[in-house]
């Protein structure tokens, strides 16, 4: 699954989320950062816990692939966490001025958005409109949670949802995605593993995807996570 991170303070939780998803659920996790996210979270920590190179914010073409297309096709689930007001607005408008946005807008898999919106911004009609548009357009907007504002320490109801809330939405969305894929055979380049067919119905657990190395010589080659499931 592809974890897209944008520049809200909740991004500091991402290494822990990624670690949990990889080790506990056995998912292959790749991360893509925006410029703002990169300033708030450790790229090295994310690479270590995902055992995969972190994508973005630069468009990396050394691997000889078009990065947003490769990511968009690879992902069987996309979670944007946290999703800033800025990212939500651009996504709602179909703007693709970063690798993260282009990957999300091009994604063929279900996209979950875990917003983190300042309380004052949430009151704006434009922000409400964007959230409605995203839901109408098929994005899965996870209800925001109560969070402590990094600014004043006050509790607000517009914080990034917690991982359990995100996974509840994922559990609802993924079986429907699998049904749609079964009815519509994958295009070339979109491989279904035998393991996927054998995988038990969702309890939040998905078959791992292979993760490509940064360069042909930089890693051990495509591999599965060694983590157990469940
Ligand atoms: C410490 C810090 C916390 C921030 N938290 C949020 C937030 O919770 N929600 C939000 O919409 N923007 C937040 N921002 C502002 C965004 O980082 C800014 O709008 C940025 O342009 C978003 O870029 P991105 O969407 O490409 O990541 C925060 C900025 C900083 C420096």
A few lines on this structure:
The protein has 230 residues and is α/β, with parallel strands linked by helices. The chain contains 10 helices and 7 strands. Strands 2-1-3-4-5 form a 5-stranded parallel sheet, sandwiched between helices. A two-stranded antiparallel ribbon has the order 6-7.
Provide an overview of this structure.
Residues 2-140 form the Flavoprotein domain. This is Flavoprotein. The chain is 40% helix and 13% strand. With 230 residues, the chain is α/β, with parallel strands linked by helices. The protein has a single domain (2-198), classed as Rossmann fold (3-Layer(aba) Sandwich). The two termini are 16 Å apart. Mean pLDDT is 80; it is low at 185-230. The chain binds flavin mononucleotide. Flavin mononucleotide (FMN) binds at residues 6-9, 34, 36-37, 84-87, 116-118, 150.
Q: Which class of secondary structure composition applies to the elements?
A: alpha/beta
In the CATH hierarchy, what is the superfamily?
Flavin prenyltransferase-like
Look at the structure and give the mean pLDDT.
Answer: 80
Summarize the helix and strand pattern as letters.
Answer: EHEHHHEHHEHHEEEHH
What small molecules does the structure contain?
flavin mononucleotide
Q: What is the CATH C-level name?
A: Alpha Beta
Count of helical regions? 10
How many β strands by DSSP?
Answer: 7
Task: Kindly identify the CATH topology.
Answer: Rossmann fold
Distance between the termini: 16 Å
Write down the Rg: 17 Å
Name the helicity range: 25-40%
- Quick one: overall form? globular
Query: How many structurally independent domains?
Result: 1
Write out the strand line-up for the largest beta sheet, numbering strands in chain order: 2-1-3-4-5
How much of the sequence lies in strands comes to 5-15%
The assigned CATH architecture is: 3-Layer(aba) Sandwich
What ranges have pLDDT less than 50 throughout 5 or more consecutive residues? 185-230
User: What's the main sheet like?
Assistant: 5 strands, parallel
């Amino acid at each position: 699954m592809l974890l897209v991170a944008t520049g809200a303070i909740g991004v500091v939780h991402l290494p822990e989320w990624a670690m949990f998803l990889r080790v506990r659920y056995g998912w292959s996790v790749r991360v893509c950062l925006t410029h703002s996210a990169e300033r708030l979270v450790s790229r090295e920590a994310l690479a270590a816990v995902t055992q995969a190179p972190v994508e973005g914010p630069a468009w990396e073409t050394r691997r000889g692939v078009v990065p947003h297309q490769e990511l968009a096709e690879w992902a069987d689930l996309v979670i944007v966490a946290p999703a800033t007001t800025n990212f939500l607005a651009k996504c709602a408008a179909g703007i693709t001025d970063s690798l993260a946005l282009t990957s999300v807008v091009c994604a063929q898999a279900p996209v979950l958005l875990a917003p983190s919106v300042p309380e004052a911004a949430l009151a704006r009609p434009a922000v409400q409109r964007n959230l409605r548009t995203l839901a109408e357009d098929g994005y899965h907007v996870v209800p925001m949670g109560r969070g402590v504002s990094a600014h004043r320490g006050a509790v607000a109801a517009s914080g990034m949802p917690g991982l359990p809330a995100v996974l509840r939405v994922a559990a609802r969305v993924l079986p429907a995605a699998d049904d749609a894929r079964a009815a519509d055979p994958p295009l070339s380049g979109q491989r279904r593993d035998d393991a996927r067919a054998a995988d038990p119905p969702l309890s939040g657990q998905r078959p791992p995807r292979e993760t490509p190395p940064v360069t042909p010589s930089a890693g051990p080659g495509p591999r599965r996570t060694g983590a157990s499931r469940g």
